[in-house]
Amino acid sequence: MKSLVALAFFCMIFVAISLPQSGQERQASGFDEEHTEWIATALRSIQVIKVGMTRSELMKVFTTEGGLEFKSATTSQRTYVYRQCPYIKVDVKLAISGPYQDLPTDKITEISRPYLEWTVGD
Fold first, then answer.
1. 4 CB-near residues (< 8 Å, 6+ apart)
2. How many other CB atoms are there within 10 angstroms of residue 76's CB atom?
3. What is the pLDDT of residue 84?
4. Mean pLDDT value of segment 33-55
5. Across 39-51, average pLDDT
6. Is 109 exposed, middle or buried (0-12, 13-18, 19+ CB in 10 A)?
7. Is 79 helix (H, G, I), strand (E, B) or coil?
8. d(Cα 105, Cα 99) in Å, to the nearest integer?
9. How many structural domains is the chain composed of?
10. Is the pLDDT of residue 5 over 80?
11. Where are the strands (E) in 52-116, listed by range?
């Protein structure tokens, strides 16, 4: 009987040690839960944009990067910034319909992974 009580006691200690300590675990990791969730939400909305989608679909999530921008004969390659944070960017190549125009029907042919970078100033 004593060995059964001892076994139960050690099992309770093992379970107590194994369970995550909610507040302590978060503090030990050093992650800010609100910031982490915001970034996760941003990444999910960015990952919606895929090759084959149109410029108009891209522009629902991103906008063109500000600052001085070189305008070439084509607008097929450009950096776009996430609408909710100008530091989150992607580089996009589009199959364009005509020179000097940004048509909503232009198709995305390539999109980079999102990356962080300071905004471009004027």
1. none
2. 15
3. 97
4. 97
5. 97
6. middle
7. strand
8. 14
9. 1
10. no
11. 62-64, 77-82, 85-95, 107-111, 115-116
* Structural domain contains residue 79: yes
Average pLDDT on 55-77 reads 77
| pLDDT given for residue 66 in this prediction | 73
Domain holding 26, by residue range, is 2-116
User: Is 101 strand, coil or helix?
Assistant: coil
Cβ–Cβ < 8 Å for 87, 77:
no
Contacts of 118 (CB under 8 A, 6+ apart): 87
Dihedrals phi, psi of 121, to nearest 5 degrees: -95, 160
**For residue 38, pLDDT beyond 90:** yes
Please enumerate in sequence order all residues whose Cβ is within 8 A of that of 122, keeping only pairs 6 or more positions apart, or say none.
66, 67, 68
Residue 76 pLDDT class (50, 70, 90 cuts): confident
Is residue 121 assigned to a domain?
no
Longest distance between any two alpha carbons in the chain, whole Å: 88
